Amino acid sequence: MKRFPESWLMAALLLAFAGGLGAAPAKAPAACGACHPDFKKVLGDAHPAVKGRSIAECLPCHGKPAPDAGKNAFAVRIHRGHAAPESGVPCSACHEFKAGRSFTVKGGKRSLGKPDAADFARTRELMPVPGAATYLSGHHAAKQVSCAGCHGPAFPLRGGEVANPRCLACHGPMEALAEKTKPKEAHGLNPHKSHYGDIACTACHFGHQPSVVLCKDCHPKTTLVAPFDK
Ligand code: HEC
Ligand code: HEC
Ligand code: HEC
Ligand code: HEC
Ligand code: HEC
Ligand code: HEC
Ligand code: HEC
Q1: Same domain, yes or no, for 131 and 204?
Q2: Measured from the CA of 190, which atom of ligand 7 is nearest?
């Protein structure tokens, strides 16, 4: 990875203090050091020392495709810190976006898909969720599962779905899941084993809105409650 001389760090620190901490740097909006003169404050002492002038400096060790459906604390936390519009850090601090053509991390070689302007707007809207642990996606973010954990490494598009094998990669196999939710009372229902057979997980578990128990439509007396139903 590239190393920057200590003198550069000193200059950045001086600039940061001169401009007041938290002030957006005038020329280089991607300069992390303006807001994070010391990364140890956000990353902790155990993290390897980083100077952090731009996101590209993180990429030699991070930003590779996560193993299929794996956890990715880096992707979760880098967005948690900045996704809320109040943070004052625009997506463009770290991403290069050409509507309908490309979306990448600045300085990164890997394509993150080709969202169009409306896809971008929709994901922008869902992005702050990692900070507020609401619904299924927020809960997963709290457990270090990033957007890519469910949606795959490309930018999530409008109308995006998540197929059962993806969920079951972490929660399966199906038999084990059904065993966990075996009804305790006689005539109780098992949401994961029924006359519906192979049902989509997302018939009940929604990513970004309250989940439901589909069975209630016809079995209104069931006491089943889906996690994150509000
Ligand atoms: C305009 C100010 C600003 C800039 C520029 C900025 N950040 Fe942040 N960053 C914040 C704020 C605010 C937080 C959330 C508060 C906190 O955790 O200290 C944060 C949090 C973080 C976190 C911790 C997230 C968590 O909660 O786990 C990391 C990591 C981080 N920033 C990295 C970077 C990197 C890398 C860059 C440069 C590409 C950068 N930041 C640029 C303001 C900024
Ligand atoms: C020299 C390699 C290296 C560089 C460069 C690097 N990191 Fe890391 N980072 C690690 C290692 C090792 C871990 C711990 C193992 C893991 O969780 O991947 C880690 C973990 C993290 C985590 C997750 C911590 C957790 O919650 O478990 C965050 C967030 C993070 N790094 C942010 C950054 C940011 C931001 C940058 C760029 C400013 C950066 N890292 C640059 C090596 C590096
Ligand atoms: C401080 C830097 C930073 C900011 C700001 C940032 N991103 Fe990212 N983003 C990254 C990095 C780095 C990756 C690659 C993570 C990986 O693959 O491990 C990434 C990956 C993504 C992905 C791929 C899915 C995933 O979970 O990895 C999406 C979608 C995304 N960003 C959207 C956005 C949007 C929308 C915004 C603005 C709200 C934004 N990002 C702001 C650094 C940032
Ligand atoms: C990358 C792995 C991963 C993927 C993919 C994934 N999950 Fe999870 N899920 C987790 C982890 C980790 C937790 C937290 C487990 C815990 O709290 O012990 C969790 C928690 C949950 C919970 C809450 C369980 C509880 O304790 O109440 C539900 C429900 C759930 N996931 C459903 C889904 C569904 C549906 C999908 C697909 C749309 C999915 N998950 C995809 C890893 C994953
Ligand atoms: C018919 C609605 C429905 C469908 C379809 C469904 N679930 Fe569930 N799921 C529920 C309900 C209700 C609960 C809570 C059960 C309980 O409280 O005993 C639950 C609980 C869970 C849990 C937490 C289990 C635990 O107690 O540890 C996970 C994980 C989960 N579901 C994943 C999935 C996956 C993966 C799929 C697709 C293969 C799926 N669900 C399909 C309704 C459903
Ligand atoms: C636990 C799995 C899970 C995680 C994590 C997750 N999603 Fe989703 N997402 C879903 C499911 C399931 C759907 C299908 C619609 C629904 O059920 O809400 C979906 C749908 C979407 C859609 C299409 C929605 C529409 O209205 O057209 C977008 C965009 C999206 N997700 C973005 C994101 C972003 C951005 C993140 C990270 C902040 C994320 N998702 C994290 C499960 C997840
Ligand atoms: C479209 C309506 C409908 C939905 C939705 C529905 N059921 Fe049923 N279910 C029925 C009917 C009709 C019967 C048969 C009549 C009876 O015996 O009460 C039945 C019977 C059952 C029985 C007893 C007979 C058997 O097959 O063992 C169970 C258990 C059951 N359903 C579970 C579920 C579960 C779990 C769900 C949600 C995944 C569900 N049902 C969703 C209509 C439905």
Answers
A1: no
A2: 35
Cβ neighbours of 48 (radius 10 Å): 7
Is 110 in the same domain as 27? no
- The per-residue pLDDT for range 74-111, each reduced to its tens digit, is 999 999 888 777 788 889 999 999 999 999 999 998 99
Say how far apart CA 144 and CA 77 lie, in whole Å.
8
Reported as a single tens digit per residue, the pLDDT across 64-78 is 766 666 899 999 999
66 Cβ contact partners less than 8 Å away, ≥ 6 residues apart: 72, 75, 146, 148, 149, 153
Helix intervals (H) in 135-230: 135-142, 147-151, 164-171, 174-180
- CA 166 to ligand 6: nearest atom: 2
Q: How far apart are CA 53 and CA 74, in angstroms?
A: 17
- Residue pair 56/100 in contact by the 8 Å Cβ criterion: no
Which of the ligands is closest to the CA of residue 92?
3
**Residue 74 sits in the same domain as residue 90:** yes
pTM: 0.92
Helix (H, G, I), strand (E, B) or coil at 102: strand
